[in-house]
Every structure is written in C-alpha cells, then in structure tokens.
Amino acid sequence: MCAKSALLSDTLNGVIGIVNYIRANAMRHQQFRQIPQCDDEAFSVDLPYHSKVRWLSQGQVLEKVLSLQKLIVNFFEDRNISCKLSEQNFCRNATFLCDVMSKQNQLNVSLQGETKSIYDMWQKIQAFRKKLTLLKSVLIRPHISAEYVPQLAKIAGRWCNVKE
C-alpha cells in the first residue's frame, strides 16, 4: 500500500539492499552475527531474509533493521562502506514505513479467518482508512505521538543518533 509511493519504495529497497548485503555472503553474515552486543538488549543479532512472496515479512524486516541500526551502521563503517541508515532522512522514512506497515500487517491478520463476515472485514478496512487520516493529521503536529507512530516517536528527539 504505502510502499508503492516512490520515496517509500526507495526506502524499502534501500533497507532490503542493506539486508541482502549482509545476508548474501556467508562470511559477512557470520561476521555480523558475531558482533558483540554493547547494550543490555536481549535480542538476536541476526537479520531475517526479505521475501517479496511473503510481503508480511517486510514489516518484520524493517523492525529488525531499525532495532539493530547502530550495529548495522558500525558494521558498514568497519568496511568503509556508506550505510543509508546513517542518513537522517532515510532513517526517518524507514521508521515511518515501519510504523505504517505494522498497522497494515495488523489489519491483514485481523481480516484472516474462516469465521469473518464480509461486513466485519469491511468495517475494519473503513476503520483503517480513518486511522490513516488520523495519522496524517498527527504527523502535521510538531510533537509526534508514540501512541500512533511508536518507531518514529523513538527517533524524533535523536534523529537516528548516528552521524549524518
């Protein structure tokens, strides 16, 4: 849906390129997985593959890349390669895309099932459209609410916290 816009499509392709660069070569992938975690965060350092066949995975890939942003940027810097995640605009677009895609994924999951009626699904789609309108009005405000766009709100004050 929103990934069809040119800017967000380029952002998604950039994130996919970052993941593919790390995952395409077995040695690079192993080196990335062996990066020691500096923070107390208890999550896997591995990146999931992206698959266009499984488009629901795009949201998960975006979330994982954003959660590992500092490690990915450091990994690229160690190899003297520029990483788009160190750019403020790219990072902002990726977080916005992550937020919208997570909402879209929630809608898709809620529409699945044999016991769903057409009327209930139609109401959920209409509610989603209203949420997008609300989201547009929220983004115009100077203060970004974590209730509506949690990933974007995380970076609003620090704008990726990496050098620009």
Task: Present the secondary structure layout.
Blueprint: H1 6-24, H2 26-33, H3 57-67, H4 69-78, H5 88-111, H6 118-140, H7 150-156
Helix pairs in contact: 1-2, 1-3, 1-5, 3-5, 5-6, 5-7
Describe the model.
By secondary structure, this protein is mostly helical. Helix content is 62%, strand content 0%. It has one domain (2-161). Helix 1 packs across helix 3, helix 1 (6-24) packs across helix 5 and helix 3 (57-67) packs antiparallel against helix 5. The longest helix is centred in the middle third of the chain and has 24 residues, at 88-111.
Global Rg: 17 Å
**What's the SSE pattern?**
HHHHHHH
- Chain-averaged pLDDT: 79
Poorly predicted ranges (pLDDT <50, ≥5 residues)? Answer: 160-164
Q: Total strand count, please?
A: 0
Main features:
164 residues, mainly alpha, 62% helix
Brief characterization of the structure:
The protein is an all-alpha fold and 164 residues long.
